[in-house]
Amino acid sequence: MEHDPGKVRAVLALLEDHPGGLNITAIARNVGINRNSLAKYLDILIRDGRLEEQGFGKSRVFFKAHRLPFFRNYRCAPRPGHYP
Question: What is the domain-level CATH number for residue 24?
Answer without folding.
Answer: 1.10.10.10
